[in-house]
Amino acid sequence: MADLAAPVREPRLAQAIADAERAARRSGVSIRELTDVAAMDAAHALVDRIWRPDPANPPVTTELLRALGKAGNYLAGAYTGAELVGVTVGFFAAPSGTALHSHITGVAGPARWRHVGYALKLHQRAWALARGITTITWTFDPLVRRNAHFNLTKLGAVAAEYLPDFYGPMQDSINGGDATDRLLTRWELTAPGVEAACAGRPRTVDEAALRAAGAAEALAVDPAGGPRVAPAPERARPLTLAAVPPDVEALRAERPDLARRWRRALREVLGDALSEGARVAGFAREGWYVIDRSDEPGRPTR
């Protein structure tokens, strides 16, 4: 990790760099900052191949990347040999000097299954810690099961806010014109759970144990594959589970009306819960958000 190779005396930063280097080795990539126009142009082209966006509304352009890089922001790529297979872009955020917002992270083709995204995020964390940044935020589509598991379990981040139709409709190969609801995610880089996740000990959820403890289904999958929303009293219980479909991107392509029903249902259940003061306590690999209302204002704590 040449761009982080200055002498390191702070143990937490040294460990973050070691974690990032280990993740890169296991993924078979080298990760380095993007510093010239050719690399930024390749990053722009890679993002276009992954998202296939509306030409009038690209997520990034070479010119934007050049400006962000000149201003000292975070631009990095994952390489297999000379081939760019992943890219991540972030910019400094408020509060000034302590936060970074990760705008986009994407991995192409077969490299997606080699944990390259994990390696990129750990590089991003080490880069941020080296500059005194302690919080990274980003948004993701809460209906995409693999992303929820990646962000909340594998990285140990937390869901901070539900953002309805955050970007407005996006005509690309991933969003398919659906409303762009997002979860704003906070990654507290020095939190014990994050440090454990970056060392290879993810924040797992035991669904069976939660059910045994009385967790109710606030949102489930009905026999036809659609969303089944529980009555309001069930959704207001201290601990509930909210399901997401196995592959919402396939639904958008094959059954767009059903995908939109899932969007509305999750917004009603998860969005309303977060706006009322509940928190997301984790994500079960089987496809359930864990909603904890025990600390809501006015509710007795357990």
What does the model show?
The chain is an alpha+beta fold and 302 residues long. The chain folds into two domains: 2-198, Gcn5-related N-acetyltransferase (GNAT) (Aminopeptidase); 207-292, no CATH class. It is 36% helix and 25% strand. It contains ten helices and twelve strands. It has helices at 11-27, 37-51, 62-70, 116-130, 145-154, 192-198, 207-212, 232-235, 248-254, 256-275, and strands at 30-33, 74-80, 83-93, 99-107, 135-140, 158-163, 182-188, 216-221, 227-229, 239-243, 279-284, 288-292. Strands 1-2-3-4-5-7-6 form a seven-stranded mixed sheet, with helices on both faces. The chain has a five-stranded mixed sheet with strand order 9-8-10-12-11. A hairpin with a 3-residue loop joins strand 11 and strand 12 (288-292). Helix 2 (37-51) crosses helix 3 (62-70). The radius of gyration is 20 Å and the shape is globular.
